[in-house]
Structures are given as C-alpha cells and as structure tokens.
Amino acid sequence: MGRRRAFDEDEVVRAAVGLFGGRAYDGVSVDDLVTHLGVHRNSLYKTFGSKRGLYLVALRRHLADDVRPLAEKLATAPDAATALRLITSADLGLLLLAAVERAPADDEVAAEVNAALAAVDQAIADALGISTVLAAALTAAALGILLRGNPDGVAAALAQSLHFPG
C-alpha cells in the first residue's frame, strides 16, 4: 500500500501556473518545481508523470480559471475599447508564454492555445458584431500590448481610436 500524498494537488497546480507563467517552461527546472512547489521529486513524477505533464495540467488550469472567464466577460463587451481593456488587464502570462515558447514545438500545447484564442476571438466577434478575422486582429493587438508592457500608453491610445461598425 502506497503512502498518502503529503501535498494538495490543487495548490501545487495553482503554484505551477504562477511559476510557468512567470518564467516559461524552459525557464523552470524540475529542481525549481521541487523547491517552489514543496513537492518531492518522486511525488511530482508519480502524480504528473513529468515536468511536461505538470505543465499541461497547469496550462489547462490557467485556461479554465483565467482565459475562459475572460472570454465570458468579452462576450458582453459593449465596444472594442472595453474588449481591449479587458484583455490588457488580464493575467495571461502563461497563455502568452505557451503561445510563443511551447506551441511551436508541442502540438498538444498548440491545440490548447489555439482553442483558447479562438474562444476569445469568437467572444469578441459575437459581442461586437464583427468578423472573427477582425476580432482576431483586436486580440492580437491586445496580446502584443501585453507582451510589450504597454509602452507609452499604447492601450489607451488604441482604445480611444477604436470604432468598429456595429
């Protein structure tokens, strides 16, 4: 009979979201996970199978807890400026890092990222009555602002100039 887990899996996954969202997959070693999550190496492997296994669970948690609620808010956005503000104020670090670091090399991560971004695009398109192509352009602009750290108030300037036909 095996020993009981000495950690809360939900807490570990939440902490992993923060760790991967702040330092990316390649920036986090198994030693970092053991140290920061307070989980023994053997327990980590037994529970998640691998670093990648934990990463996928953390990514899916981030998408469920952060990106899905964002899409729900976006679905009721009254205008493009509001949609832009919602996206640029959201905590999307793990989604962004997954899109640029892991998705090009990992089909499973790419599928998760693409589905999440498609849901965001569709929510914007439905709320604003615009094409999904135009909604995707708004999403891309907002994510670019997040990546760049909103230099010189780009988000506010863009929000002021957005006028999509309704």
Please provide the ordered H/E string of secondary-structure elements.
HHHHHHHHH
Strand content: under 5%
Principal-axis shape: elongated
Percent of residues in helical segments? Answer: over 70%
Quaternary state reads single chain
The structure class reads mainly alpha
Task: Describe the structure in brief.
This protein is mostly helical.
Describe the structure.
The chain is mainly α. The protein contains nine helices and no strands. Helix 3 (41-48) packs across helix 4 and helix 5 (80-88) runs parallel beside helix 8 (132-148). The longest helix has 24 residues, at 51-74.
Quick tags:
single chain, mainly alpha, 9 helices, 166 residues, 0% strand, elongated
